[in-house]
Amino acid sequence: MTTGAVTPKLAALAWPLVAGNLLQTFYNLADMFWVGRVSPEAVAAVSLMFPLSWMFVSTAMGITAATIALVSQYVGAGEDREADNVVAQTAFLTVAVAVTLAALGLAVRRPLLGAMGLSGRVFVEALAYIEVIFLALPFTFLFFAFRAALQGAGDTKTAMWLMVLSAGLNVVLDPLFILGPGPFPAWGTRGAAVATFVARGLAAAAGVYVLLRGDWGVRLRVGDLRPDRPTLRKLVAVGYPATIDGWARSFAAVAMAALVAQFSVAAIAAYGIGVRLMSVSWTVAGAVGQATATGVGQNLGAETPDRAAEVTWKATVGTMGLLFAAAALVVAFPAVAMRAFVNDAAVVDEGVVFLRIIAPFWAFFGGTMVIQGAFRGAGRTKVAMALSFLSRWVFRVPTALALAFAWSVTLPGGATASALDWGVNGLWWAFSVGATASFVVAVLWFKRGRWREGVIDREPTGAAGVVETD
Description:
There is one protein chain. By secondary structure, the protein is an all-alpha fold. The protein has 16 helices and two strands. Helix 1 (6-35) runs antiparallel to helix 10 (265-301), helix 2 (40-76) runs parallel beside helix 5 and helix 4 crosses helix 5.
């Protein structure tokens, strides 16, 4: 990514990431498709568990955001041995954190679901699903580590092919474990989680094998798996804002799910399906953002910041154009998109409204995600974190409270402020407001240019700390 025309190199780096992320989304959609054949309560349960499970996965994304930044900058600077050491320390750290989080999640699973307001059949289905998802966390973390290591080195195709294998297996196992044809048990929502467990375990094992081989740009060296405190501190220093970023997004998703849960089962199910459809745009934008992170990191390592900026702007414009086109298709045929997952008329009607309100703003979601990827590639993970907080906790959640529910307060001086009481539609509009406002802030922040310095030490030992001023 440090020489030649930017656009074709960015496209070559991004398309396997887009394909891999779409495959991930595809098997999430497959879960929803087959769970939709069980009951609306099962759909609601899996819908509400998606942001909760993602909250734990966000920790892995934080660690691996640091991996991408450090590996890409070391590769750009020609320090391949330092890049290999980062890979080993990432593997060590991800496994340790994943096992801890899995144990914690299993210990508090019941009170956690209760705190979210789940009850009755939805509680039972959600519990069956999330228990297995917690057990799959170590596999999930290892696969994230593997993908980040290769991505930082500029190889995005290998992880894509492993995603093909994993997603394909998940799609085959879903109907067998969920519906239980023939000799298979009809496990319902638990079956969807078991299929995910098996698929992620296989992908993690294959990823570790690839890294041990070392034929794809970076290598996992067994001797490097001993704790290296300077490198671990660097991973934590660069990664913890990205982890907090992920938690902020996940907690916001949990908060929005809790707000949706105040309405009908049809609204909850429509929200779950609608978010899955939205996730197609998020996965495309997230993949381009990952490619942007690699391009920015390698160019900062090579001390060519103007080229890093060119990568970012071209990626942003291209992604937004693609998402505008996809949104136009969804707005034109929203009922068709909903009926692919559920035949319940009330759920379809609610989903149509959801998509018509939110889809026109997909491009702004995507543009922000690409710019966040650029900040992460530069190692400025605190800025990406701040953008997530603004998008969700400053713009989205307060707007949702203001638009969706009936309330009023008396201000100093006797004036009264009241909510608009738009019902569940107010929640949908809150997504659109947050997406637009956060995109404007992201563009202005990136143009400040304080991300141009990078974070790696130029000394051969690579042992110096990380400095972040933004």
